[in-house]
Amino acid sequence: MTKKKILITGGAGFIGSHVVRLFVNKYPDYEIYNLDFLTYAGNLENLTDIESKPNYHFIKADIVDAKSIFQLFDEYKFDSVIHLAAESHVDRSITNPTEFVMTNVVGTVNLLNAFKNLWKDNFDGHLFYHVSTDEVYGSLHDGGFFLETTPYDPQSPYSASKASSDHFVRAYHNTYKMPVVISNCSNNYGPNQFPEKLIPLFINNIRNNKPLPVYGKGENVRDWLFVVDHARAIDDVFHKGKISETYNIGGFNEWKNLDLIKVICKVMDKKLGRANGESEKLITYVTDRAGHDLRYAIDANKIMHELGWKPSLQFEEGIEKTIDWYLANQKWLDDVTSGDYAKYYDKMYSKR
Ligand code: NAD
Ligand code: DAU
Fold first, then answer.
1. Looking at ligand 1, which residue's alpha carbon is closest to its atom 19?
2. At what angle do helices 330-338 and 341-349 cross, to 10 degrees?
3. Domain 4-193+225-253+292-314 fold
């Protein structure tokens, strides 16, 4: 029997690398193809522990390049897709929205077209799984939670591009009967996150005694989930999710930014042998993010009740694990901030 070929896009990024690791280790009977363009956010150093496994394959390609995406689907005949590749940072979307339209919208449509073209005569046994975000639902102001039925109301160029890609995925199901599934997750944290996002940026700045730039008054609220728990949820949705359904994924773990930052400062003081309260002195209030969403909060009851998923870690344990990882992997932090990891790619793949 030929092994199922699963294409995971964006597998060199933060969440993608945890998904690739889980699938490569848990499913030796799948051939896992990690397709990534290795932008500033993609880093093959995230996957050194599994890169020599026989069921792991890396393909460097740009999802915006329709021709090469079509050629790759033609060559490899991927059975199913788990699509994570994206531009993912809200602040970057504010300075360069077009790049987000290209990668997140055009890139997704290119993948949908290539998948449709390959399997249109018989979609049985195939799946296009689109990984999305809770930001498509907009900003909560008066309590409540985002449900799968909450109307879309994206507020930033990033969330508008993700919402658009979600709509295209649903439209391909409705129009062409493509088997699709979508999940919308809250903020992830954990090892391997690029230090432009709040938690790794602040850990890195505390380590280097640099100011901690808190946007506005630090009153915005996010619902944080450990990245490995998101990867486990993606596994459940991929294998047990119902075609054409949406699953919200979240940790029921809301934190006001300032409270979260104070926890990080406290744990870091302890780990670095600093006096209690020393890292908090680095907090610096800066101009707010334009159009800053006030609160995100996911109701994750559907995936918990229908697919039996639940988070495995309490936040206190997860944040400690996360800080320990960054402190034990300072070279990783130095490499991604200096751009040195590009050399790693050249060394590993230029002669292949
Ligand atoms: P990331 O920025 O860490 O990684 C994105 C990956 O996509 C990188 O490896 C990058 O090289 C790759 N990529 C970018 N443009 C590409 C292109 N044109 N062609 C091929 N590959 C390309 O992102 P992340 O935080 O791991 O997020 C992964 C997915 O999960 C995204 O779709 C994001 O919208 C979604 N998501 C993220 C979070 C979060 O908290 N980080 C929460 C919910 C959903
Ligand atoms: O909710 C899911 C989303 O979470 C994902 O779809 C995005 O890809 C991911 O980047 C994340 O978006 P956020 O904008 O919520 O994450 P970020 O880490 O950029 O910011 C978290 C909060 O911290 C937000 O309220 C802005 C604030 N912040 C962020 C940075 C980088 C600061 O106060 N200072 C900072 O320097």
1. 62
2. 90
3. Rossmann fold (3.40.50)
The Cβ of residue 205 has, within 10 Å, a number of other Cβ atoms equal to 18
What three-state secondary structure class fits 107? helix
Give the type of residue at 92: R
Token couple for 307: 């697919």
The domain segmentation of the chain, as residue ranges, is: 4-193+225-253+292-314
What would the pLDDT profile of 282-316 be if each residue is shown by its tens digit? Answer: 999 999 999 999 999 999 999 999 999 999 999 99
137 lines ligand 1 (CB under 6 A): no
Is residue 214 over pLDDT 60?
yes
What would the pLDDT profile of 61-83 be if each residue is shown by its tens digit?
Answer: 999 999 999 999 999 999 999 99
**Token pair in block for residue 254:** 């809301």
Q: How far is the CA of 90 from the centre of ligand 2 (A)?
A: 7
Structure-token match 């800053």, residue found = 292
> Which residue of the set 36, 45, 87, 135 is catalytic?
135
> Whole-prediction pTM value?
0.97
346 annotated active-site: no
Residue 48 per-residue DSSP state: T
Asked whether 342 lines ligand 2 (CB < 6 A), one says no
- Residue 245 reports pLDDT greater than 90: yes
Nearest ligand to the CA atom of 227: 1
